[in-house]
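Quick note —
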Amino acid sequence: MRYLIRDMVISSSNQVWIIDITCVGIQIGFLCLVATVGAYSRRAVGCAISARIDTALISKALHMATIKRHAFPGMTYHPDQHVQYASGEYVDVVETHGFEISMLL
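Predicted structure written out below.
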């Protein structure tokens, strides 16, 4: 995995998606929100909510985005540094779609 978006000029939608996890405290614990955002439009293109941060949660957000935005092979997918994004299962899901993975290491 490489950091691919450092000097990239983002000039169209579905060129780069950025994904992030945020956990919010509620009265009975925490809820975790994963959002996939188009870097060009800055709009959420996929999301998922769960009480657990795991590979299934981030895979759901990616799946929703691919259906909603008709993703294509070759686009760049940039997650933050959570360990779930480096799991073999998740990398397989991303590569199945033909996406390039950009990650700060």
